[in-house]
Amino acid sequence: MKYLESGLLRKQYSINHGIFEWIELPSFYEMSYTIKLNKKLMSTNSELHIQNAERIKKYLGDSTRFHQLNDKFLNYKFGPSQLHKLLTTPRAGLKISKTAMTYLKEVFVKETYGLKMIHKIKSKYLEHGILAEEESIRLISRFFMVGLEKNEKIYENEYFRSIPDIVDNNYVVEVKSSFSPLTFPIFEHKAKPEHLIQINTYLGILGKEKGYVAYVLTSPDESIIAGEIRKASYGITDEATLKDIEEKIRHDYDYSFLDEAERITIFEVDYDKEHYEKAVNAVIDARNYLLVLLSNRIQQISDGI
Q1: What DSSP string runs through 263-300?
Q2: Which of 41, 214, 257, 302 could in theory staple to 59 by disulfide, Cβ–Cβ 3.0 to 4.6 A?
Q3: CATH code assigned at 212
Q4: Averaged over 167-177, what is the pLDDT?
């Protein structure tokens, strides 16, 4: 029986009559994390930070890069758009959920290797949200009957770093550009949970009491429509069929015939201090997890694994 370390996941394998048998085992961190929590022996973030600094000096030749990572994880600031991943309910005995652990491992890898772009998931929905933002804000401005502009300023505090879409003297607006009528809320009575968390965090950062989540149905950019046509036309050579496909796709993504009121759904959100404090506590726990991941990584390197 042998053991391998693959990233931060420990795998066990055996050779039985020439057949490899793989068994997923909990990582060292997850096992020790549960034990420490059950015994209430979990180190504070500052204690872990000091321990890591000592181990970096001892095992990694006082590596400047690892000291910088140690300092960064101690005070890591999260974007409100990802907070819902940290606030998912953990199973008994754990302080953070598996969803949060998975997300934080991605954060750890991104920061450890200094990734800028390749970790970002590109999809037509995200691309549409970026390209349609200006049109969405224009429609929202008409709804509020005021001239609203895209905010470019970074707002941050001890726990969060963010760029809200629209910041007014009295309120904050988070803009969500819906890709199609199928993703546009017409039956819902409140914003999606992850968007409520996001806007409430903005309100906490800016010290405001009122916010809005605005869903706007906007036609996709021509580049996205062309991509949808290419995908639907793949392998088809008949000219009449190709023309029919293009006409139907362009028809489905053209919302110009709708009144503007039909293309906007806005939910008002009042600041909830208790939920904001839960988000703060989730960040503190997340920092703890990042520091322990760094501790494990230091050990892994020093052991030559």
Answers
A1: GEEEEEEE--HHHHHHHHHHHHHHHHHHHHHHHHHHHH
A2: 302
A3: 3.90.320.10
A4: 95
**43 and 80 fall within a common domain:** yes
User: Which of 128 and 59 is assigned the larger pLDDT?
Assistant: 128
Calpha distance 7→29 (Å, rounded): 12
On whether both 53 and 145 belong to a single domain, the answer is no
Over range 265-283, report the average pLDDT: 97
Backbone angles phi, psi at 2, to 5 degrees: -130, 165
Please tell me the least confidently modeled range out of 8-17, 108-117, 186-195: 8-17
Do 65 and 144 belong to one domain? no
- Together in a domain, 94 and 167: no
In a domain, 155, yes or no: yes
Query: Cα separation of 236 and 8, whole Å?
Result: 45
Q: Are residues 74 and 171 in the same domain?
A: no
Which domain covers residue 201, as residue numbers?
124-219+255-271
Q: What is the pLDDT of residue 125?
A: 86
Average pLDDT over residues 207-235: 96
Domain tally, the chain: 2
> pLDDT per residue over 100-155, tens digit each?
999 999 999 999 998 876 656 678 888 998 899 999 999 999 988 889 999 999 99
CA–CA separation, 229 vs 58, rounded Å? 58
| pLDDT band, very low/low/confident/very high, at 13 (cuts 50, 70, 90) | very low
Q: Are 267 and 191 in contact (CB under 8 A)?
A: yes
Q: Is residue 77 part of a domain?
A: yes
